Structures are given as structure tokens and as C-alpha cells.
């Protein structure tokens, strides 16, 4: 029999530093060190945690948020760059797989990016959130199918989605079909109210069940002082509370440790990887429980770029329209 494989995982719920450009990075590195002391091998941080989630855009109109938006650009993360190098060194030092959410600056645009570092410090994946939600559309550009990848890490096959991407069943299926074993979920936290946390719990538990994988989900947190610094309006401040659901879920849809709904802390749980087989022997939604001859996913996994040279353009595929024309021509020739 194969040796039992157990991975110690952690989900982080802490507040960013809204004032100091590199302050949030310092908090990330400190949390990694704390987790390493607990024997953690895999850790997940909240959505766009570095430098911070754009909470200002949820409660302030565009005309009043120009200064905040400019400061957001100034503090955004270039990949690769000093931030990714610091996290890479931490991953290598502690032999830890790290999933970090950043606001990625690429020339004139910012993207919601998820970064996965392996234990040797290598950046295995940089993916961008496919579609920004509501107020986020003023802040981020859109990602592409090139990032819908599951990567092989030292702890197993890891996939990641950000926030309401979990409401896109085809995006989730793309990762399921690549047989992810550990799924990293990232949400902003401190947003909308407790109903947001409730909805997040339903979503991540369902994905664990449907995919037959572990879900390590991390949400952010804002202190009362930070909320007041974002907006002095007490009515709007209510929209910056609640919404947290930091949790670690088994392939059977169970919490492996009590979830964190408020405050700061580190959730740690051991992932018994044999539970994946235990779940999938009953229901493998991309294997014996699938009907690919009836239902399957077609994905465009090419990077979306604003310009390419003519010699890189692929041959035009046999389209439905061309197929219809060919069939019609063939039918005519047969009659003749």
C-alpha cells in the first residue's frame, strides 16, 4: 500500500496595511514565518492582499476616488519584481507552497492576480481574475483562459480562483477537469455584510464536494480604524463589515477546523489526501460520473494580447459556417 500523504495547510485572515506601501508585504512575510513554525506546507492569503483590496471603490464614487485610485497605481505590484522576489525567498526558505493575491500592474492597467509559488521559490502560475465584479470593473482589467491552469506543486495539484469566479461553473470545471487536489479560494472579506460570508461558505463547500478536492479559502479583514479611514460616512461603513469566511474544507464538504468569521488569525489543518479518493470513488464529476460524449468544455487557453505578428496567427479552423457550406456542396454534387 502507498504511504499515507498528509499536507498541513493554512488560511490567513489578517488586515492589510493601508498606509505604508510595503507594510502589507511585511505582514505577509511575518504570517509565513508564523505558519512555518507550525509546520505549515501550504498557505493561502486573501484576494489582492498586496498592497490591499480596493475597498475605496465600493463606497466612494469615481469622481471622489481619483486620489485613492492614483495611490493604488503607485503601490501596485509588478510581476516579477521586488514583492515576488521577497515571497519567492520566503517560499524557498520555509519550503512552503504560497498562494498570494496581488494587484498586478502591467503598464497602464491593474489586474487581480493570483500567484502560486512552489517550495523551491519558483513562480509556477500567475493568473488574472477573468471578470471584475460590479465596482471592481473601474479598477481591474480582465484575465484570460491562459491562467485557468492547475499546477503540479510539492504538495500536489493546486488550482485557484478569486471570489465570484466561483460562481462561474465553467471556470471551476476547467480546474476540476485538470484534477486539482487542493483549491485555493481568495475573497476580500470585510465587505457587504454577513450574508457575503454565508454565500462564500456555500460556494466553497459545494466546490469541494463537486471537485472532490480540498478547499483552502482566505478572506481579508479591516479594523474599525481602517474602515473609518476609508469613509467617514457611518451608513457606508456598514458595507465594509462582515463578509469573512476563512475556512479549510475537506472533499466531503466538511470544515476541518472552525471557520473564522471575524478578527485576525491563522487557520491550520491537516489534509489527509486519501479523502480525495474516498470522495471520488463515489462521485468523480470529471471521470466515471461524467458524460463527455454529451457534455464537455471547450476552452480558449491562449493568452489575450493586444497585438501579434501575422506569422503567429494560426490557420483558421474549420468553422460551423464552412462545414455547412461544404456539406451543402457535397449534397449538390451527390445529386448531380
From TrEMBL:
PROSITE patterns: CN_HYDROLASE (PS50263), NITRIL_CHT_2 (PS00921), PIPLC_X_DOMAIN (PS50007). It holds the Pfam family CN_hydrolase. GO terms for molecular function: nitrilase activity. Residues 7-273 form the CN hydrolase domain. It comes from the Bacteria. PANTHER family: CN HYDROLASE DOMAIN-CONTAINING PROTEIN, NITRILASE. Belongs to the carbon-nitrogen hydrolase superfamily. Nitrilase family. This is Aliphatic nitrilase.
